[in-house]
Amino acid sequence: MDAGNVAKAVLLGWYWENHATCVEQNRFFARCLQQHPDRLAAFASVHPAAGATALAEIRWAKDNGFCGLGELSPHSQHVALTDPTWCELLTLAGKLDLPVNLHVTDPRSRPYPGRVETPLCDFVRFAREFPKTKFILAHWGGGLAFDSEDRALRNICYDTAASPLLYDGGVWDRALAAVGPECILFGSDYPLILYPKQESEPGFAGLLKEIAEADLESAPAEAIMGGNAAALFGL
């Protein structure tokens, strides 16, 4: 963060297969927040299969200063989209004003180990069925940020995590033209190495350079690089 001149970072969780692992990660993040409240914020992970325990964990996260949920993935966690706890989870997130970050795979992307299909229509369905819940669709929403007729849904934002591994540098102009800067959040997917041909260590420098070379106007750049997150998460 210091090397990249990043003032504050939001820690995102993982869509673990066991709820106990989600809890372990959440407790670790809580310690991080206690030690570095000026530099870090955090999202909490849960597994809907835990039922009421998962919902209690969400309330615990809110009480302990977490500002969102995710990264979650019902497709990877083998949860039916009609699962009662999943639906209650999304409703509760809306009531507690906790944005939900969801993993999205572009259906046109190349095969890779661990790739999970995430039909884009499912995320449009979530946004429509839970209008009071704010959704952050990871990885440019699998292309929804610039290729979807449903991109006007106002409870959806898109993060840029892992962007260089998925799209070329023109993605910034395409997304800005489609959804506008107010719907885009800078995300890195750190510690993933985003430029494996040029980098051997994880960091923010490469992606920040790509954004600089995109030559965004100052207002959109400021929104994407922190303003939107500060407003959405109450930072």
Describe the structure.
With 235 residues, the chain is an alpha/beta fold. The protein has one domain: Metal-dependent hydrolases (TIM Barrel, Alpha-Beta Barrel), CATH 3.20.20. The chain is 41% helix and 11% strand. The chain has ten helices and seven strands. It is globular and about 45 Å long. 36% of the residues are buried. The mean pLDDT is 94.
What about the largest sheet?
7 strands, parallel
Low-confidence stretches: none
- The strands making up the biggest β-sheet line up spatially as 1-2-3-4-5-6-7
List the total number of helices: 10
Helices and strands, in order, run as EHEHEHEHEHHEHHEHH
C-alpha end-to-end distance:
17 Å
Q: CATH top level?
A: Alpha Beta
Structural class designation:
alpha/beta
Number of domains: 1
Principal-axes geometry comes out as globular
Percent helix range: 40-55%
Using DSSP, what is the number of strands? 7
- Which architecture does the CATH hierarchy give at level 2? Alpha-Beta Barrel
Secondary structure elements and pairings:
Blueprint (H helix, E strand, L loop, with lengths): L8 E3 L7 H17 L4 E5 L7 H12 L4 E5 L11 H12 L4 E3 L17 H10 L5 E3 H4 L2 H4 L8 E4 L3 H4 L4 H9 L4 E2 L19 H9 L4 H16 L2
Parallel strand pairs: 1-2, 2-3, 3-4, 4-5, 5-6, 6-7
Helix pairs in contact: 2-3
Give a concise summary.
The chain is built from ten helices and seven strands. By secondary structure, the protein is of the alpha/beta class. Helix 2 packs parallel to helix 3 (84-95).
Descriptive terms for the model:
235 residues; alpha/beta; TIM Barrel; 7-stranded parallel beta sheet; 7 strands; 41% helix
